[in-house]
Write a structure and sequence with these properties.
Helix content of chain B: 10-25%
Structural class of chain A: alpha/beta
Radius of gyration of chain B: 29 Å
Helix content of chain A: 25-40%
CATH class of the largest domain in chain B: Alpha Beta
CATH topology of the largest domain in chain A: Rossmann fold
Radius of gyration of chain A: 25 Å
Number of helices of chain A: 22
Number of helices of chain B: 15
Largest interface: A-B, 38 and 42 residues
CATH topology of the largest domain in chain B: Rossmann fold
Strand content of chain B: 15-25%
CATH architecture of the largest domain in chain A: 3-Layer(aba) Sandwich
Strand content of chain A: 5-15%
Number of strands of chain B: 26
Oligomer: heterodimer
Shape of chain A: globular
CATH architecture of the largest domain in chain B: 3-Layer(aba) Sandwich
Chain lengths: 575, 565
């Protein structure tokens, strides 16, 4: 494979393009609403109408507005279409399509009318998005590598292998300001540099696709919609750090993503874009899949590596960091799906372009899975620094049925709740940390006035308790105790002392746990206590004895973890 | 057992000197090497805070950390606060006005067992926050731990008890129901597990997997339902399982042999050696009222690290057997006193023509006894040998030579080369009538080609042993001897380490340490006086036997001295 072969594939693909393209969402969300049936019905309808020469029915990845699925959109390659087009040849969007709607949808290509519900592609939900990671999502056919190649796929890998030294490449990633999209936000370029510098014959690249936060589905969508962008990002990373073997660790709950990855790897190997001597360079790189077995903690990098090695998925203390001694004791680069998906665009369009998007310390875009009590549930990609209010009110359309938004939860079980008063906060790593939450991997759960915050805290604590691997004592015992205390509070059987105990436990578990799971498990409690303390105290029984006698100033909670509570201004973790 | 890494028992050539760094532990400055060899691979690893604390003699409580095992970092008991030397924007250390380097205190505590030290680091082990964390961890550990100390074998040597007293709170704030787990799990032929007592430190798992190389144990389930178990359908049955009982910080793993036998605080601890093979594992004998209750390995990095095998550990019951030889017997099994018997024997030996005596000693005897027998043999012009005891070796500790002192028998000149090659010659000489007196120590020669009929041809058969056998029944003089637990002495183990052992219990009846009566016998027979104490005897031997040159009883210490072999 040389660059001319890539161009040839792309040209052939473009030449074969038909006048109309009916894009039908074939991501897991729409598939669960029978989009497969819709696609088949559309194909039949096209055949019946005798339009095979003119119309392509294309299964594509996520079209983002998941709550209105199955989604179908019709594009036209040339002017004079029977319907109005957007500037980029994109035609009308149809929502909640059923197989029965197929004939009427196809009839519109001959000037007919359809009663199918129309979506508004100009709605801020779409128009306010800026797609880097999701640029191909909803447009290309994720099951055909040719479709990706046509969208400039594997160009970046070629250019890197031909034109850049690993050092220059890492320099470019550092300059772009890309930070890890898994949640902690560690500068990606620095991580690559550390692995690159490690002296070892054997190095590995791992893609963390063990997306486990409740309500988060960004990584799944990327893998289902554009698997090659992740493979290309991994290959570029491998070249940068000097690895020849990659693993993608996907949770078993994502069968469609796994199937598409399998197919993508197979196709890339067939075209020589993975394997030995890629683009006729000395660079070799292979990717294998490893399927998770349903443990949330395996999203933690050291637990993930243990699981890849076939061991029980439990974390281990760091140092040594994976960059020094990771998988099979070799230096290992481990990045999240979205991080890898950002790599090829950065290489193609330049570090300056990427660094021009976002805020001073958070560059580029971030994909969020908008869920919960919100009108427009779905997948959005916005520039870093976009105000939370813009996301939930303008793009998300606010709470459904005229409800009022009470809080937005970010970062899943490791994150916190941001109250409605703080909705003007720009969404970037540092602003969210200041509010006691985290960016996290991109789950964004909106809550309205009917949501009880103590209940939310209990939900996440129960999740952490169930998912605690049990290796270290504070997380093993502490999550269970905190969960019991939250139950007690919700049952109305708790006193001030119990609340005080809960807070002390939060700091204890946060400060003494081995891995991120335990260290962040108390965050939902701490953040709801910070902004919604009254909801807790309203549930307390009157306490005849008052706060515990050894409380420093008798206010009850001030004594909590007096030695363990973080000092003002000190970051709460090494992130 | 196939991939078992071998223990670093050999003294390796001194590695290149390791860079030293200075750290402070609770204000006390100590110098520690920058790297410390990994206990298993020997690979240099960054020195950790807990190693620096040890160097500063500051105790840091811990459960999962064990100096001989890979670090797990799960118990969180060793959390400490620390500060590192502050580095400015120019990457140079920031200094205080007085010129000392400025310390920036870490906002988060760190586990001392896994965190490397850096130059200028300050470790704080007794701050209020550290105390609070220890209290918290102990409180968590006790949530689901049964309070059955009165019936728990570990009581008295339980880290949970000790740390609770030292660092814990007297009460728990938690009243919620406990998680219940299996109580009496039969893990293997020698181990019983109580999962409710288990604090999931995983020492046993790491020992079994990384030291023994048998991936038999593991943890199943999640969170507070974590449970230690053996691989489904597999017995926890290798030759090192009982070490897990030693390293279990609580009473979760108990030895079927020792459980419910004795409260540990009643046990007298005596430093001794295992006699079951030539490795010479250092042990502690636990005894009470002249009864041995258990062997435990005693740390000696030159020999057995901190471990011993199960077969050696359980090989102690013969010491207290009811049929121990406890009566001194003269001709015709007549009762006789020690002075009379030794006098009669020495008379007979004096009269015996030179070369008409043979001496079969045991490589289970001590260096001192073999040395004395050697002197006797020289005087009598006796042919001597000892008896090889071959077995199967493993890759860890068990030696193919099942005698504890084969090397001692060789170095004192008692055993033939190869050991046992003189035995057929001695049998032949008895048959031909050339040998008329046979002295046997601690071996049943009827199993070595000398039938009772052949032994009947002897004029005098002098036997010393501990347990009865066909040879002792034929003896004209039967001198009851002592088990190693009943006397003092030294063995030379297979790699040339001379190690001493102490007396734990009294011998039964007439039995006396062999070196004691041999000393008298030699005085009577040869007229040469020697030392009547084991210290003097050893030092005398060191002066006479070239291999033991420059050694002294006191100089051996508790862990012995290696001699070139």
């Amino acid at each position: 494979m040389v660059i001319d072969d890539l161009t040839e594939i792309a040209d052939k693909e473009r030449a074969a393009r038909k006048r109309y393209t009916i894009r039908c969402c074939m991501a897991a969300g729409c598939m669960s609403s029978n989009s497969k049936g819709v696609k088949e019905a559309l194909e039949d309808a096209v055949n019946q109408a005798g339009l095979q020469q003119m119309v392509e029915v294309r299964g594509v990845g996520c079209m983002k507005l998941c709550c209105q699925g199955p989604l179908v959109q019709i594009d036209s390659a040339t002017a004079g279409a029977t319907f109005a087009l957007e500037s980029n040849e994109v035609g009308p969007l149809y929502q909640k399509v059923t197989p029965e709607d197929a004939n009427s949808l196809v009839s519109t290509l001959k000037g007919g009318q359809t009663p199918v519900q129309r979506g508004d592609p100009r709605h801020p939900f779409f128009s306010a998005q800026l797609s880097i990671v999701l640029a191909n999502s909803g447009f290309i056919d994720p099951e055909r590598i040719e479709s990706y190649i046509t969208a400039e796929g594997y160009q970046a890998l070629h250019d890197v292998l031909r034109e850049l030294t690993p050092k220059d490449l890492i320099e470019r990633i550092i300059k772009s300001g890309l930070r890890g999209r898994g949640g902690a936000g560690y500068p990606t370029g620095l991580k690559w540099a550390t692995v690159g510098k490690a002296a070892s014959q054997q190095k590995y690249v791992i893609c963390n696709a063990d997306e486990g936060d409740p309500g988060a589905f960004m990584d799944r969508s990327v893998l289902e919609s554009d698997p090659h962008s992740v493979l290309e990002g991994m290959a570029i990373a491998a070249y940068a750090v000097g690895a020849n073997q990659g693993f993608i660790y996907v949770r078993a709950e994502y069968p469609l993503a796994i199937a598409r990855l399998h197919a993508a790897i197979k196709q890339a190997k067939k075209y020589g874009l993975l394997g030995s001597g890629i683009f006729e360079s000395p660079f070799n790189f292979n990717i294998d899949l490893r399927i998770g077995a349903g443990a949330f903690v395996c999203g933690e990098e050291t637990a993930l590596m243990a699981s890849v090695e076939g061991k029980r998925g439990t974390p281990r203390p760091r140092p040594p960091f994976p960059a020094e001694s990771g998988l099979y004791n070799s230096p290992t680069l481990i990045n999240n799906v979205e991080t890898f998906a950002n790599v090829a665009p950065i290489v193609r369009k330049g570090a300056e372009w990427f660094a021009g998007i976002g805020t001073e310390k958070s560059k580029g875009t971030k994909v969020f899975a908008l869920a919960g009590k919100i009108t427009n549930t779905g997948l959005i990609e916005v520039p870093m620094g976009t105000a939370l209010r813009k996301i939930v009110e303008e793009m998300g359309g606010g709470a459904p049925d005229g409800g009022k938004i009470k809080a937005v939860q970010t970062g899943g079980p490791s994150g916190g709740c941001i109250p409605a008063e703080e909705l003007d906060t720009p969404v970037d790593y540092d602003s969210l940390t200041k509010l006691g939450s985290i960016m996290g991997s991109g789950g964004m759960i909106v809550m309205d006035e009917t949501t009880k915050m103590v209940d939310v805290a209990r939900f996440f604590m129960e999740f952490c308790m169930d998912e605690s691997c049990g290796k270290c004592v504070p997380c093993r015992a502490g999550t269970a105790q905190m969960h019991q205390l939250l139950n007690k509070i919700l049952a109305g059987n708790a006193t001030t002392r119990d609340l005080q105990k809960l807070e002390e436990l939060c700091y204890m578990v946060k400060n003494t746990s081995l891995c991120g799971l335990g260290q962040t498990a108390p965050n939902p409690v701490l953040s709801t206590l910070r902004f919604f303390r009254k909801e807790y105290t309203d549930l307390l029984m009157p306490d005849a004895f008052g706060p515990r006698p050894n409380a420093v100033n008798g206010t009850g909670h001030a004594a909590a973890g007096r030695n363990l509570a973080p000092t003002e201004g000190v970051p709460s973790s090494g992130k | 057992m196939s991939n078992a890494p071998s223990l670093p028992t050999e003294t390796k050539p001194a590695p290149a000197p390791v860079e030293k760094i200075k750290v402070r532990v609770d204000g006390k400055e100590v110098e520690v090497p920058k790297t410390t060899p990994d206990p298993l691979s020997g690979r240099p690893l960054p020195t950790t805070m807990i190693q620096a604390c040890n160097a500063a003699r500051v105790d840091v409580p811990h459960y999962c950390y064990h100096p001989k095992l890979p670090v797990a970092g799960n118990c969180r008991m060793c959390l400490v606060e620390f500060g590192t030397a502050a580095v400015g924007q120019d990457r140079k250390p920031v200094l205080n006005p007085d010129g000392t380097s400025k310390i920036s205190k870490s906002p988060r505590p760190a586990i001392a067992c896994a965190t490397p030290v850096s130059p200028g680091m300050e470790i704080y082990t007794n701050t209020p926050a550290v105390k609070q964390m220890r209290e918290g961890v102990l409180e968590f550990l006790l949530i689901n731990h049964p309070l059955d100390c009165p019936i728990c074998d570990q009581a008295g040597e339980c880290k949970l008890q000790e740390y609770s007293v030292e660092y814990g709170k007297s009460e728990s704030r938690f009243v919620e129901p406990k998680v219940h787990k299996p109580k009496h799990v039969d893990l293997g032929p020698r181990i019983v597990l109580d999962d409710e007592r288990c604090i999931l430190c995983t020492r046993c798992i790491r020992f079994t997997k990384d030291v023994v190389g048998d991936d038999a144990l593991g943890i199943v389930n999640r969170g507070s339902y974590n449970t230690l178990t053996a691989y489904p359908g597999k017995q926890f049955d290798n030759n090192y399982t009982l070490n897990t009982v030693d390293i279990c910080p609580v009473g979760a793993l108990t030895s079927k042999d020792f459980r419910f036998q004795m409260r540990v605080w009643f046990l007298k601890e005596t430093k001794s050696l295992c006699t079951s093979c030539a490795t010479g594992c250092n042990i502690i004998i636990g005894s009470r009222e002249e009864k041995v209750y258990r062997y435990e390995p005693r740390e000696n990095d030159a020999v057995n690290s901190s471990w011993m095998c199960d077969s050696g550990r359980l090989n102690y019951k013969w010491i207290g057997r009811a049929d121990r030889l406890a009566k001194l017997q003269g001709p015709g099994s007549s009762a006789i006193g020690w002075s009379a018997a030794l006098k009669e024997i020495s008379e007979k030996l004096k009269q015996a023509a030179k070369g008409s005596t043979a001496l079969i000693a045991s490589a289970r005897q001590t260096n001192e006894e073999l040395y004395l027998l050697g002197k006797l043999a020289v005087k009598l012009g006796a042919m001597t040998d000892s008896v090889p005891r071959p077995g199967e070796a493993d890759k860890l500790l068990l030696n193919a030579d099942r005698n504890p002192n084969s090397l001692g028998a060789r170095l004192t000149g008692i055993s033939a080369d190869p050991m046992g090659s003189n035995l057929p010659k001695i049998a032949e000489a008895i048959k031909s009538g050339r040998i008329k007196t046979l002295i046997v120590f601690g071996e049943d020669v009827t199993e070595l080609g000398m039938s009772p009929d052949l032994l009947g041809m002897l004029q005098t058969l002098i036997v010393s042993d501990i347990l009865p056998n066909a040879t002792t029944r034929l003896a004209h003089y039967l001198l009851p001897g002592c088990a190693h637990a009943e006397k003092r002495g030294t063995f030379t183990q297979t790699k040339g380490r001379v190690q001493r052992f102490m007396k734990a219990v009294e011998p039964p009846g007439d039995a006396r340490p062999e070196w004691e009566f041999l000393h008298e016998l030699i005085l009577n027979t040869t007229g040469q006086d020697g030392y009547a104490s084991i210290e003097g005897l050893f030092n005398q031997m060191a002066g006479e036997v070239p291999a033991f040159k420059d050694l002294s009883w006191a100089g051996l210490g508790d862990s012995g001295v290696s001699i070139p072999i």
